[in-house]
Structures are given as C-alpha cells and as structure tokens.
Write a structure and sequence with these properties.
- It is a single chain.
- The strands form 6 sheets. Strands 1, 2, 6, 7, 8, 9, 17 and 18 form an 8-stranded mixed β-sheet that branches. The protein has a 3-stranded antiparallel β-sheet with strand order 3-5-4.
- By secondary structure, the protein is α/β, with parallel strands linked by helices.
- A hairpin with a 2-residue loop joins strand 7 and strand 8 (159-167).
- The two termini are 42 Å apart.
- It has helices at residues 13-24, 57-66, 73-93, 125-139, 190-193, 201-208, 258-267, 280-283, 287-297, 359-380, 387-406, 415-429, 436-451, 465-489, and strands at residues 2-9, 29-32, 47-48, 107-108, 118-119, 144-145, 148-156, 159-167, 173-183, 213-214, 219-222, 243-245, 271-274, 306-308, 311-315, 319-320, 326-328, 335-341, 346-347, 512-515, 521-524.
- Among the domains are: 226-310, Succinate dehydrogenase/fumarate reductase flavoprotein, catalytic domain (Flavocytochrome C3, Chain A, domain 1, Alpha-Beta Complex); 405-514, Methane Monooxygenase Hydroxylase, Chain G, domain 1.
Amino acid sequence: MQAWDVVVVGNGVAALRAAIAASDAGASVTVLCSRAPSSTSHSECGIAASLGESSHSAHAEETILVGDGLCETDVVHSATTSAPHHLAELERWGVVLRRDGNGLPHLGQLPGQSTPRTANTGDSTSRELLQILEEQCIKRRIPRRGDVEIFDLVMTENGIRGLIAMDVQSGSIFGIQSKAVILAGSGFESAWNGDGVGMGVAASLALRSDLPLANLEFTAMHPLTVAETNLYLPLDLLGAGAIVMGSDGTEIPSDGGADELARAIVDAGGASLDMTGIPRSAKSWYAGTFDMLSSRCGIDASTENIPLMPAVVFTIGGIPVDASGNVVSNDWDSTVDGLFATGDAACSGMHGASASSGNRMLDAIAGGALTGDTAANHAKSTNFSGSSTISTALSEAHHMHDEILSKAGNGGTSVGALMGALSLAMQTHVGINRDAEGLSSASETIRELRNLEFGIQDSSTMMNTEYIAMRQTQGLLAIAEATITSAVAREESRGSHRRTDYPESNKKLVHHSLVNGDGAVSRLPCRN
C-alpha cells in the first residue's frame, strides 16, 4: 500500500500550488486527478492584486462589499495582503505578465473594482499559470498522476486515514495511506452547463463521508458568455477596452461586480460585447479569443459585436474550511483531523455571496499555498495509521465496482440523458432568478432522476470512461439536490442568490448555510 504525508486531489491551480507548498514544507506529496492538470474554464481572468495602491485595504473592502455580508474578513485580508507577494513569486518562476509603459505589470479595471487591479497574461492566464506550476512540481519531483478517480475518503472517528482510488487505464482499484488529504478539485458548475468538467467530485466525497457542504446556493454567473454557446470570453477583455452594450446601444455599467453585470444582461434580455475599442497594443494578448470567435462563431470581433447571455461558470459554495484550510464539521469549533480543502472545491469565505473580479485566481493561489503548508505541518506531528480500515474500505469498493459492471448492458437511463435533464432543470429554475415554485419543480425533477436506474453499456474494467461518468453523475445529482435544499432555506436575496418571491429588502440574519448528507440545513454565523 502506498503511503504519503500529503495527497492532493485535483488538477488545477489550487491543487498544484498546494502540492508545491506542502513539498516546500518538507512533506512527501503526490497529486491525483482524473484528468491531466488543465484549466477548467477559459473565462478565468487574471489575478487581483493591489500593486498600484498604498495598501490592500481598498481591495479587501471591495471584496467584502461584493460578497454582500458573507465574506470571512480574516480570509479576505490574508489573501489581499499576500496578493503582491504571490504575483511576484509567479513572475520569478517564469510567468510573463502584460506590462505597462513603465515596465510594471499592466492592471485592468474589471467589474466591481474602483481602480485597475487585475494582472494577466491576456487570454491565456490560466494556461500560463498551470504550465509554470507544473514546472515547479517537476523541479520538486512531485509525482502527479492523471486518469485516477477517487472513490472514497477513508476516515475514522480520529480523522482522515487515506483514500480509495481507481486507475482508469488499468481498472485496478487501490488504497493509499496518508497523514493528510487536500481536496482541491473543481466546483459543481456542470450541474448547470453540462460540460462534464466541474462535476463536484470533492463535494461528493464529502457528502459520502457525512460531512456538510456550505453555501451551495451561491454561484458565479459569467457575463461574457457568447449567447447560445458554451464559449466563455475572458473577463479581462473589459479591462482592455471592451464594452458591454445594451440593446439600446448604451453601455451597461459594471460597478457592482461580475454577478451584477450578469444580472443586468439577463434582465435586459441579452446584450452584446463591443471589442472594437481594444487598442492594437492589447489585441495581440487576446489573439486566441479573436481567432476562436472567428472559427467557432463566424464573428469578426474587430468589426462586429458579440451577443451575450450569462451562464454559471463556477460555484462559490462547497466544503467549508477555516482560515487555514482545515475542513470543519457541523460547527466552526471542530475540524476533521488531517482533511483540508482549497480552491473551487472549498467554501473558504473569500467570496462570500458573490465573487469579486480576479479573486477566484487569487483564492486558488493564496489559499492553495496556505493550505499546503498547513497540511504539511500537520503531517509532521502525525503518524500513519488506519491500514486495516483502508483494507476494509478497499474490499467494499471492489464489491460495489463488480456489482455495477455486472449490470452493464441491461438497459437503464444513459449518463448523457441524465446530464441533459439535470442542466435543463438547473438552468430553468436555479439560475439567476429563483422562487419557491421553481425550486420545488427542480427538486422534484432531480429526485426523479436520482431514482432512475442508471445504464451503461461498457462492462470492461480498462479505460471504462462511461463507468466513471456514471459515478460522477450520481454524485453531481446528490450535490444538486443539496443545492436546492439550501436555496429553498435562504428566503432572501443576497449576492448571486436572488429570490424573486421575496422583496430585496428582506434580508435575514447574516449566516452560512450548511447542508448535511441527510438534507438537514443548519445556519451558522460568520466567524468574524
């Protein structure tokens, strides 16, 4: 049985940054993911940092304002204070940022920012960061394995002991012993967009381990989504000279943040993006976007406007953690020993009820670094244990695996049909506007989907991606059901959660919503 001080589950910026930090703190580290490290969305903008400001206070204050009362101030101040340091570190590692006329990092002013605050590498920021972080992992000899699906966390009453996983290529199921596990995967945005990327694997693992999920009702709508497509244009375009235009030909303001801009577009029945104002000096940084619009949509963005209709691009809720990345249980006073979460998988308190521009990437980097360091320090004071518990869990996993494959080819509903029905219900009833009737309808639909017999045709053990998709979809349906439960319980409009059946002024006591595996909802006050 393999044994590692720290196992990182995930394939994005937060996962790789956490692995680097854990390694630098002296831990033996491995990274496991179902896909090779990759960006989950082209919409990811740059990194928010107060480089041209006298202090980070304005960045923190605007983050808290956009978060509409649910940000954890200690998390916000820690991330915004450290942002310039992390940006400088990334440059030392090789990230090539856009520069201004003075040779300093070019900063774009994005929705919700009172001053230019977002550094980027044009439309390739996420890809550039991943490449640099992968290089840093290679230098530290951190093993990274793709095509590994995590089936279960192995826990005892004393905390995490390891996990059960499957090598998708060979079909072998194995156990790993670990002193610490960091869940750093994607959110669960595939419940809305159906792309099969943000399947909420980390949140599903938490639910199966009887751990709560927090603030699931809050999502991030991307305003620069090309209408009737799944193309998400970089938000950084707005900091480079692009303008969102209403149907009347006037600019739609974006002072309140990306979610507010998305709501304005939806309320107007759509809008368009005018990219003709991007200066020649900046166009080269967004050449990929211009080419994509031309090849996939037949739009010449240098002369034509792009039709927009916002879509959910990432989720804010997830596994609740404290300020150091420790997973918390049903109250803020206790944590799960050895279990950590960061990035989109976590509900860190950085975003509150709505994410501020540039803070998603900042949270992935700053949160990943802090969580990795915390996990490594935990591992130093912990011994390996629980091998018998892992062996028992491994035996159960083999049994379930064999039982599912034995039913292959016996009919049932396909994964594609289930995902289509789920995304339609979520888009229709759990989108930017919500009410009790619509949420009830979505809940009924998902309940029916969960009761259907899943069907797969492939009974092989090797490279059975249909089997993996089925298991992930089962988990996503459970998360979607919990999301609606949490949305029903929040009888107010706050941040990205807008209840049209309650007045805007009907704001209750500020609280986090926690949903358990049995569907029970509890409310906890903000920590600070």
